Automatic annotation (TrEMBL), chain A:
Family from the record: Belongs to the metallo-dependent hydrolases superfamily. DHOase family. Class I DHOase subfamily.
Binding sites annotated in the UniProt record for substrate: H60, V61, R62, N92, N278, H309, F323, G324
EC number per UniProt: 3.5.2.3
Listed name of the protein: Dihydroorotase
Gene3D superfamilies the record matches: Metal-dependent hydrolases, Urease, subunit C, domain 1
Short name of one Pfam family: DHOase
CDD domains registered for this protein in UniProt: DHOase_IIa
Domain Dihydroorotase catalytic: 49-236
Residue numbers binding Zn(2+) 2: D152, H179, H232
Pathway: Pyrimidine metabolism; UMP biosynthesis via de novo pathway; (S)-dihydroorotate from bicarbonate: step 3/3
UniProtKB/TrEMBL annotation, chain B:
Binding-site list for L-aspartate: K83, R173, R227
Catalytic activity: carbamoyl phosphate + L-aspartate = N-carbamoyl-L-aspartate + phosphate + H(+)
Biological process terms in GO annotation: 'de novo' pyrimidine nucleobase biosynthetic process; 'de novo' UMP biosynthetic process; amino acid metabolic process
Pathway: Pyrimidine metabolism; UMP biosynthesis via de novo pathway; (S)-dihydroorotate from bicarbonate: step 2/3
Organism in which the protein naturally occurs: Aeromicrobium endophyticum
Family as reported in the entry's similarity comment: Belongs to the aspartate/ornithine carbamoyltransferase superfamily. ATCase family.
EC number: 2.1.3.2
Name of encoding gene: pyrB
The name this protein goes by in its record: Aspartate carbamoyltransferase
Family annotation (HAMAP family): Asp_carb_tr
Length: 440, 322
């Protein structure tokens, strides 16, 4: 029997309420709602903000294939520490998640771990090769119930193939999440193309390579009447194209990563590959543009693009290093710093951008729900007044490639509940009592 | 004085002139019957070359040996590097062998910065060319050569001199280092190239740019031709080698448009017939062979100033590496 009462937490950052839940379902919410209950496990919510459990639409868990970098279990644990109750596992594993068998394996590993729901993303094309559609319907019909399809890491650059994918997934209400990167314009690209790439002698990754694909794809989505999701949008021009598309009524959604909200390309100056990521860190003007876009709703969601890599793939010269940075455990703090503490988003809007809308885009029906009676008790408690200095070693991920080491960021996750059971309490992971017997 | 030489931008005017003046003194050593000074006796200098460059390597090797340093040549070809050993492990190995200076040539831009900033080696790091980034000792030897011809005195900079650099600026580490150093020394630099071979953001560099070589010759005190690899035309940077030569190559007709005192330079190796004709390369105004001679003196000066008595004990700290 698991029943909990959270006393006096600020629901979505508003006035304090009590939240009561039992057997995974919220039974009472409101000021003084806890007065009439007894025998529940008590949690003092004073000063804490209660949000629906966060949902990440863009996580790399590396299993199967690169279990040295991350597994479904370790990625889930990092997610729980970051306040997530659901993550979408990207398809660029080895083997690629392009069959029902692979997506069901990932989905099952997530359930066995018990730290958060792991919703696999299916590849759009066989082996991410960009030449033949994967069996999208089989993945949709599998136990994993895949609704998001992406060749992330690679762009579906062939216009006809992209058109067909957009059309085909309509049969099961799927969405294509595009990694927008024109391949010919980015051959050998190492960093944002701008004054600094010229100075540092690194091959540039021009904004136009992202914007050209987004422009093409929103027009394709309009033409065939499909919905499109744009992964990790990173430039001012991309924000403007998506804003234009939405004004035309095109069914497009877009995500921005925490690192593109906070960091800019001048960090590349020292050639430390910890800052090497794809799409690359952009200019300060682009950082401002994606903040504006998130604030005005042009950008729908924040997604982490959590990309673990082993140490040796980052402790090397720039061009030899892997692209990517981890981000599950720092995402909410970065959003608080860049958007909440600057007055650009309320906590209610953060809940929409990091829980409600990503769940809706991914068609995950039992996540991103309001914190109301009868709803699943997926809850995260955040202490917005706390701050912490990021230590790369203090992570549940198997990898340490965080770009925030040494930075002091606001906000800590005090507790995370997945269907009424704590996965994090007092800031520490709680071992699930799952029947599969996961060891801590 | 700086402790590493990673970028020509690391040098302020005082440091740059000090290196050039020191090189002037050391140039005399090369003309003696016994070309050796005892300055770096007992010090170990490693030539760490991940990219073939016999010219640069032997220039550094000669410089170190003339200062009596022990020289270890570490070439990536045929070593553990080709079997997948990382830059970090290579550096830790050299550190364990007691390298006082590591001269690194690498195909990846910024590799010398990683070596120095990640503290994988305690020795001084000298950039001998990294990717398409920089080649600071080339810029120093170019400035040294210009000063000998255009100013003819020590202790001075290149204030007011006009230097035209022509060719594949986009991929040229020589151009980047020269633009920085020549600006520090007060020269006016004009970069001439087809628009495809100028980097994005070049308008932020302390230089002028032009697409027209003929218009950039009449005021030049020195013109420096950059090597252009013919394979660039396969990536559509220009239509053909012939067209490149016609528009951006230095031939005798263009040589005639230069002021009579102007010198012709090239960092080598030359593509005769591509960016420079054989007539011009071998012309009396060409100082290309002299650049090679001056390279040894300048590299001696860099080693002397980075490793000599002036910079103190490089082995003083006891930080651990893991």
């Amino acid at each position: 029997m698991s029943s909990y009462v959270i006393r006096g937490a600020r629901l979505l950052g508003n006035d304090p309420v009590d939240i009561v839940f039992a057997d995974g379902v919220i039974t009472a919410v409101g000021p003084g709602a806890a007065a009439e209950v007894s025998g529940h496990d008590e949690i003092d919510g004073t000063g804490l903000v209660a949000l629906p459990g966060l949902v990440d639409l863009h996580t790399h868990v590396r299993e199967p294939g690169r279990e040295d970098a991350e597994t479904v279990l370790t990625g889930s644990r990092a997610a729980a520490r970051g306040g997530f109750t659901c993550v979408h596992a990207m398809a660029n594993t080895e083997p690629v998640a392009d069959t029902a068998g692979v997506v069901e394996q990932v989905w099952r590993l997530g359930r066995e771990g018990g730290y958060c729901d792991v919703q696999p993303v299916g590849a759009v094309t066989v082996g991410l090769q960009g030449s033949q559609l994967a069996e999208l319907g089989a993945m949709a019909d599998s136990a994993a119930g895949v609704r998001v399809f992406s060749d992330d890491g690679k762009c579906v650059s062939d216009a006809v193939l992209m058109r067909r994918a957009l059309e085909y997934v309509k049969a099961f209400d799927g969405v294509v999440a595009q990694h927008a990167q024109e391949p010919r314009l980015t051959e050998g690209a190492q960093m944002n193309e701008g004054p600094l790439s010229g100075e540092l002698g690194l091959v540039g990754w021009p904004a136009v390579a992202e914007e050209a694909i987004i422009a093409r794809d929103v027009l394709l989505a309009e033409h065939v009447g499909s919905r499109l999701h744009v992964c990790h949008l990173s430039t001012r021009g991309s924000v403007e194209i998506v804003r234009w598309a939405k004004s035309r009524g095109i069914d497009v959604t877009a995500e921005v990563t925490p690192h593109h909200l906070l960091l800019s390309d001048d960090l590349v100056r020292g050639y430390d590959p910890i800052y090497k990521v794809n799409p690359p860190l952009r200019s300060n003007d682009d950082v401002e543009a994606v903040r504006e876009g998130l604030a005005d709703g042009t950008i729908d969601i924040v997604a982490t693009d959590h990309a673990p890599h082993p140490m040796e793939d980052k402790e090397c010269e720039w061009s030899a290093a892997a692209f990517g940075m981890i981000g599950l455990e720092t995402a909410l703090s970065v959003v608080q710093q860049t958007m909440v503490d600057t007055g650009r988003l309320t906590w209610e809007q953060v809940a929409a951008a990091m829980s409600t809308r990503p769940a809706s885009i991914g068609r995950v029906t039992n996540q991103g729900r309001p914190l109301a009676v009868g709803e699943p008790a997926n809850i995260v408690l955040v202490d917005p007044a706390a701050s912490r200095t990021i230590d790369a070693r203090d992570t549940a991920s198997l990898s340490r490639n965080t770009p925030y080491a040494g930075l002091t960021l606001p906000g800590t996750v005090v507790a995370t509940f997945l269907r009424g059971r704590p996965t994090v309490r007092d800031g520490e992971l709680v071992t699930p009592l799952s029947k599969e017997g996961v060891s801590a | 004085m700086i402790t590493n030489l990673l970028s020509a931008g690391d040098l302020d005017r005082t440091d740059a002139i000090r290196i050039l003046d020191t090189a002037e003194e050391l140039l005399g050593v090369a003309s003696r019957p016994i070309k050796k000074l005892p300055t770096l006796r007992g010090r170990t200098v490693v030539n760490l070359f991940f990219e073939d460059s016999t010219r640069t390597r032997i220039s550094f090797e000669a410089a170190a040996k003339r200062l009596s340093a022990d020289v270890i040549n570490f070439s990536a070809k045929g070593s553990s590097v080709s079997k997948g050993e990382s830059l970090k492990d290579t550096a830790l190995t050299l550190q364990a062998m007691g390298a006082d200076a590591v001269i690194i040539r690498h195909h990846s831009s910024g590799a010398p910065h990683r070596l120095a900033q990640a503290r994988w080696t305690k020795g001084a790091v000298i950039n001998a060319g990294d990717g398409t980034h920089e080649h600071p000792t080339q810029a120093l030897l170019d400035a040294f050569t210009m000063r000998r011809h255009l100013v003819e005195s020590t202790g001075t900079d290149l204030a007011g001199k006009n230097v035209t650099i022509v060719g594949d600026v986009l991929h040229s580490r020589v151009a980047r280092s020269n633009a920085l150093l020549l600006h520090t020394l007060g020269a006016h630099v004009t970069l001439v190239a087809p628009p495809t071979l100028l980097p994005v953001g070049v308008e932020h560099w302390p230089v002028e740019t032009s697409y027209d070589l003929d218009a950039s010759l009449e005021k030049a005190d020195a013109v420096m031709m950059l090597r252009v690899q013919a394979e660039r035309m396969n990536a559509s940077y220009f239509p053909s080698a012939r067209e490149y030569s016609r528009r951006y190559g230095l031939d005798t007709a263009r040589l005639g448009r230069l002021p009579s005192h102007a010198i012709v330079m090239h960092p080598g190796p030359m593509n005769r017939g591509m960016e420079i004709t054989a007539d011009v390369a071998d012309h009396v105004r060409s100082v290309i062979v002299e650049q090679v001679t001056n390279g040894v003196a300048v590299r001696m000066a860099v080693l002397y100033l980075l490793l000599g008595g002036a910079s103190g004990e490089p082995e003083a700290s006891e930080e651990g590496t893991s």
